[in-house]
Amino acid sequence: MSGGWAAKELAERGLRTLVLEAGRMITPERDYLMDTPAYEFPYRGLGDPKGTAEKFKIQRRSVGFSEATKQFFVDDRELPYNTAPGTDFSWLRSRMLGGRSILWGRMTFRMSDLDFTANLRDGVGIDWPLRHADLAPWYEYVERFVGVSGEALGLDYLPDSHFLPPMQLTCAEEQVKAGLTKAYGGRRIMTIGRTAVLTQPIHGRAACHYCNSCERGCSTFSYFNSVHATLPAAMKTGRCTIRPFSIVHSLAYDDRTGKATGVRIIDANTHEAIELKAKVIFLCASTLESARILLNSATAGQPTGLGNASDQLGRNLMDHIKGAGASGRVEGLDDKTSFGRRPTGVYIPRFRNLDARSHQTDFIRGYGYQGGAGGRGPLWSSAAGTPGFGADFKRGLKHAIGGWGFSMSGFAECLPNPENRMQIDPTLKDAWGIPTLKISAKWGENELRLHKDMAEQAGEMLEAAGVKNVSINRGTPPPMGQTNHEMGAARMGRSPKTSVLNAWNQVWDAKNVFVTDGAAMVSSSCVNPSLTYMALTARAAAYAVSRLKRNEL
Known about the structure:
24% helix, 3-stranded mixed sheet, alpha+beta, globular, 18% strand, 13 helices
């Protein structure tokens, strides 16, 4: 996600740019299986439990993992890691051009000053070195290129983006929305999900045609990812080169100048060690990989890792806690059905701890819900386990109509905690001989209280909105990492004594190294973070080029 943006911005601003990709190139015609019917898969789309048991032992925990998408995930046997006793962490990874941007959920939100001031207000962690006003021009800059569809609400705690026209709510969602508005007097809002999927063509990419197999790729380039959008823009300049199968081992650093001199890589195919020179380096390898590279870049002057004078490198690992919610039946719409497969759901913004009226004594911060209505239509998916075959059976499935259902599930903020950390494992290495990680992270008491509250409130809200047969999901939350929103480990800050990066995502102790992925995050908010990574990257790239041209890097 941020790597594509770094390549685009650095190349368009005049720098000869080399993109190091640890995995292979992506060929949409070969790799995107969005139009492949279930009967063409060896296991009819249900997957091979024996075949994935070891190879994808961790990766198959991902909500996006399936028989149609397994080619996008790494082989866990090649990339082992350890976790501390009594903890678990799902390190979900892809090594291919485009990385996470191929697999992301595309929900796209700005962070607000409620988020940027949260640590300062609550006395948790450290203060962000910037505010929404600093990032607002860069949010709009990337939104105009990405294409974000959504509804403007005018909320100061969920700032509006530069929107393309929103997708429509279904009739069942409209009914639940009206029920919530009536029950809570506008203090709890439902809107269509803000998503990086086009509702009108821009930049040569087509509008979505609602086939909804987005996790398999998008042959019309309607959803944003690096392969469709930012990397082609970078290549168009003639100044960008992509080198696949280049696994970054560490950075080369000169203690005398205080600058990195280049990047040490391992060729994934030949296992050859190579060192490449560079004047400016952007680390956009994803949260844990970027921090691992810095930890593996220790020098005589920085023996615990490059940029770790504050002892904060690898600490404050965060993710969003999820899984709690509720579902039920929407009645009174049996004469209506849906058409098309909308690639987003609904969103209910945070309503806890916004002001004195919504203040909670059991926990700080808050959560938002994602969900939607469904179930009205042919019973294809629900019939997957139903015995039967033949023409009559298929006709029955095609014409059977189920009732409307509605479900919602929360995503809550995770607090920065220095004890949630990653370190270099003293003995374990990956298949290319690169020291790997030992991760120690678990949910804190505040996250567990948020999880409990978002289950109870989901049930209360659906009941209040008139949904019937409401079932509350209070289940045990999945381990950290499983939401795919890992953040922290190389946080920004106002002082080199308490942070790894300054306000421009620049490593305090290596001024020509920038980290602009999730590792830079100081707090996690409760909204999906990718748009913030993109805005930070574009802002940092502009800063880096301006300083380089003034010989200040």
